[in-house]
């Protein structure tokens, strides 16, 4: 059950990691924890928002 392509997943993991790192360095605000969302969806390969809007960047199509 994948709806994210490899590039999409890589970008999400990188952005999520950067946002979480901002909690510990940089402005040190709690808003960095929002990075858990792209990090988790990137690691799982499934995004609930994509499902809601009918988007799919995964090259493997299930019939």
Short description, anyone?
It is built from 3 helices and no strands. The chain is mostly helical and 63 residues long. The mean pLDDT is 92.
Description:
The longest helix is centred in the first third of the chain and has 19 residues. The chain has one domain. The N and C termini lie close together (11 Å). It is 54% helix and 0% strand. Helix 1 runs antiparallel to helix 2. With 63 residues, it is an all-alpha fold. It contains three helices and no strands. The radius of gyration is 13 Å and the shape is elongated.
Short descriptors:
mainly alpha, 3 helices
Topology:
Layout: H1 6-24, H2 36-44, H3 48-53
Average predicted local confidence, pLDDT: 92
Distance, first to last CA: 11 Å
Alpha-beta classification: mainly alpha
Helical segment tally?
3
The portion of residues assigned to helices is 40-55%
- Beta-strand content: under 5%
Order of helices and strands: HHH
- What is the C-alpha radius of gyration, as a whole number of Å? 13 Å
- Major sheet, described briefly? none
Instruction: Let me know the number of strands.
Output: 0
């Amino acid at each position: 059950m994948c709806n994210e392509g490899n590039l999409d997943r890589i970008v999400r993991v990188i952005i999520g990691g950067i946002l979480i790192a901002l909690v510990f360095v940089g402005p040190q605000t709690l808003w960095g924890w929002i990075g858990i969302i792209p990090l988790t969806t990137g690691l799982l390969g499934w995004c609930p928002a994509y499902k809601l809007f009918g988007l799919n960047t995964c090259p493997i199509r299930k019939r």
